[in-house]
Amino acid sequence: MKKIIIGLAVLALIVFGGYKLFNNISSGDAITKSVQFDYENVQQYDGTKAYVEVNGNKPYFTEKELTKKAYVKYAALDTLKRVSSTMGCIGTETMPEDDEKKDSMGDNYPTGWNSEKYECIDGDGYSQKRTSCIARFLSGAYTEKRNIITASPFMSNNMNVYEVIIARYIERTSNHVMLRVTPIYKSDELMCRGVLMEAYSVEDDGAGICFNVFLYNAQPGISFDYSTGKSTYTGEYLNLAKVTRDYQYIINNGTMTIHRPDCENADKIGSRNILYSNAEKEELIGAGYTAAECCNP
Questions:
Q1: DSSP H stretches of helix in the chain
Q2: pLDDT tens column, 257-297
Q3: Same domain, 203 and 124
Q4: Which intervals hold domain Type VII secretion system protein EssD-like (predicted)?
Q5: Do 41 and 125 share a domain, yes or no?
Q6: Euclidean distance between CA atoms 154 and 161, whole angstroms
């Protein structure tokens, strides 16, 4: 009996210690083992930028983690049912075919989901999006609950900028890109404060893709209670939001058309088909897109 009690006490210390150690980078799963990140050292969102570079913009991947064998791995949900981390070696093997059926996210509502509608938010106006840590067009996963987080439209759009860059690089080179996305939580909050995105192109030793950024889960004009996901209108940073835009074009992936960011028709693109890109127009046309006649980008 005494041994059992001692064993349980040790287990409790391990669990509690592990939670305290990793509570701002979700769980202590093996996927995040090499991540060395402290949210407390990140500058608070002030409306002037959508993200900050981390570790000199160099990802934390170890030599052992780098591989050319394509895969996508989802960490287990943590004790609060929050998404922990998603990591993979992304290549043409993991990316779905264009004609593959794109199912909805079903009834998967991640922690912190409390979406409300505001006039200050472009598009459908809702304050939150169910967003894949590794985008569906990179992983082929549409309903995997270990991959879906509660994100502001602002963060979701800026994640998409990086995801499109990775996708176009893979399509152009057929190389592989290591990608890890880690939601960053503060204490026991249910909505993440942002995501850490790390990417590294394997075959060319990072010459094509190499970044490590923390993207803010914020929304110009509103404020979030990250414990619950509830939001309130503040009007802050609405003018500064235009400065943070990190893309040149808005893309309709359904009609395969390129739009200017100020195009009225771009605001009507559904969340499933909208993409954001800072690639050159010629590069997008080379990938099969055409310039929209309505705004002639």
A1: 2-22, 136-139, 153-173, 281-286
A2: 999 887 888 877 765 677 777 777 887 887 778 999 999 88
A3: yes
A4: 71-199
A5: yes
A6: 11
Q: Are residues 8 and 145 in the same domain?
A: yes
Total-model pTM: 0.77
**Are 236 and 254 contained in the same domain?**
no
Full residue range of the structural domain in which residue 276 is found: 247-297
Q: Are the C-beta atoms of 121 and 129 separated by less than 8 Å? A: no
Contact 113, 81 (CB under 8 A): no
Short-list 138, 163, 176, CA closest to 61: 176
Q: What are phi and psi of 163, to 5 degrees?
A: -65, -40
Query: How far is it, in rounded angstroms, from Cα 60 to Cα 23?
Result: 18
34 or 29: which leads in pLDDT: 34
Angle at 92 between CA 89 and CA 97, to 5 degrees: 130
Beta strands in 14-54 (DSSP E): 51-53
Phi, psi of 258, deg, nearest 5: -105, 130
Shared-domain flag, residues 24 and 105: yes
Nearest 5°: the CA angle 113, 116, 117 is: 145
Q: How confident is the model at residue 22 (pLDDT cuts 50, 70, 90)?
A: very low
DSSP designation for 282: H
Q: Look at the block and give the residue holding tokens 């028709």.
A: 265
Number of CB atoms found within 10 A of residue 35's CB: 22
Residue 128 · residue 110 · CB < 8 Å: no
Residue 210 sits in the same domain as residue 176: yes
How many structural domains is the chain composed of? 2
Task: Give the residue with greater pLDDT, 272 vs 146.
Answer: 146
Q: How many CB atoms lie within 10 A of CB 140?
A: 17
CA–CA gap between residue 275 and residue 249 (Å, rounded):
8
Based on the fold, state whether residues 154 and 206 are members of the same structural domain. yes
User: Among 30, 16, 63, which Cα is nearest to 200's?
Assistant: 63
Confidence of residue 31 (pLDDT cuts 50, 70, 90): confident
For the stretch 111-121, pLDDT in tens is 999 999 999 88
